[in-house]
Amino acid sequence: MELQQLRYVLAVADTMSFTRAAQRCFVVQSSLSHQVKALENELGVRLFARTSRRVELTDAGAAFLPGARAAVNSAERAAQDAAAAAGEIRGHLTLGTIPTLTAVDLPGALRRFCRRHPHVVVTSRTGNSDDLAAAVRTGEVDVAFLGLPDTAEPRGGRYRRLARERLVAVVPRDHPIAGRRRVHLRDLADEAFADFPTGSAGRAQSDNAFTAADLTRRVAFEATDAALIVDLVGNGLAVALLPTGVVPERTELSSLPVVDGPSRTEYLMWSDFNPTPAATAFLAELAVQT
Fold it and tell me: What is the pLDDT of residues 21-65, one digit of tens each?
């Protein structure tokens, strides 16, 4: 049994396609198929049920997968640790980020990091704060940038507060309140809102504020993309509460401070269980002590 065979099996399991697995592994499909078949012969079981159009894990394949993934991960971590001991950072860095990150210039930080550590492969994953925090806890994400209501903090890992900010009301430029210097939540209670999905941390910030003010509101549009929320406002379909940094300067938009409006805190979160050399180096780039 060879590590490369295990990598091929994992690629097929992840993509459910021998063709896509071969593309991911930068190998011709016939070679990948041959190695998977050779491993199946050695094990004496079929890992995949396959036809020319369909691929599925067998029961034996599903049982084999966790150990195979652990073996590959352990081998890769051993190589990373050896390289780090010799003064070179290698391996993968998986970052998680919310779509409304404003506290950190992430492209700038990555530019500096990649110049210092050119052998690290960086993967970025965008999502909501709760899912990203869970991914840090399970080891799927090394470092995550989160945005949480003031009533919440990251759980299950180490974290650092980056910034706290109040959300602003974003309305169409021709809206009756667009010319005001500031507004209250009661001025917005009858509006149709565009917001993040129910249950997400991004949505909870505004929901909590309206509940605290003993007000109700109607969310007419839900979206995971802040840019789409802004476009809905710009087209006169809704109003929104968003961080200032994600609201572009556009002629059809007006941003207003909300006296009793919601606020959020941005966090940097990482695993407190044996962080990889690449994760440790990235945190050092951000001047965070692990």
Answer: 998 888 899 999 999 999 999 999 999 998 878 889 999 999 999
Do 111 and 230 have their domain in common? no
**289, pLDDT greater than 70:** no
Closest CA to 242 of 170, 189, 187, 175: 170
Contact 164, 263 (CB under 8 A): yes
Measuring CA to CA, how many Å separate 245 from each of 30, 105, 222? 50, 11, 20
> What's the mean per-residue pLDDT of the chain?
90
State residue 86's pLDDT score.
Answer: 59
208 within some domain: yes
Buried b (16+ CB within 10 A) or exposed e, 55-64: bebeeebeeb
Query: How much is the average pLDDT of 12-27?
Result: 89
Number of residues that this document lists for the chain:
290
How many Å from the N-terminal Cα to the C-terminal Cα in the chain? 37
pTM for the structure as a whole: 0.71
Residues 174 and 254 in one domain: yes
Q: How far apart are CA 77 and CA 80, in angstroms?
A: 5
Identify whether residues 255 and 170 lie together within a single domain.
yes
Q: What's residue 76's pLDDT?
A: 75
Domain housing 236: 164-263
Task: Please check whether residues 140 and 280 belong to one and the same domain.
Answer: yes
What is the spatial distance between Cα 290 and Cα 267, in angstroms, rounded to a whole number?
Answer: 15
What is the tally of structural domains in the chain? 3
φ, ψ at 53 (rounded to 5°): -120, -10
For residues 223 and 133, give the distance between their C-alpha atoms in angstroms, rounded to a whole number. Answer: 20
